[in-house]
């Protein structure tokens, strides 16, 4: 098996329009395509994220997913940035709170956490 990388990460939003605005307007991810799947009563929006994508979905009345405290399963999605302080200022100016910037003791890289509209943990990691 020759895995080349991550193709996409799928996110189900409780409020599609709110999450779409967050990922496109606040995070600035461009839309690759957006379709309404009538048979599933679901929107699907593919967002470019470097060489990968985020698939943003809507479904009627999705159940809440536990993400804190440290539930098993996917822990968070980390986004790489060149200047973490610039990214934190960008988010703060748009009303998105970040934790304090910390240094990874193993790599020496800077990182912080914030959340999407459904409280999905997201990380900024300075490359």
TrEMBL record:
Transmembrane segments: none annotated. InterPro entries: Glyas_Bleomycin-R_OHBP_Dase (IPR029068), Glyas_Fos-R_dOase_dom (IPR004360), GlyoxalaseI/FosfomycinResist (IPR050383), VOC_core (IPR037523), YwkD-like_dom (IPR037478). SUPFAM superfamilies: Glyoxalase/Bleomycin resistance protein/Dihydroxybiphenyl dioxygenase. PANTHER family: GLYOXALASE FAMILY PROTEIN (PTHR21366), METALLOTHIOL TRANSFERASE FOSB (PTHR21366:SF31). NCBIfam families: PRK11478.1. This is Uncharacterized protein.
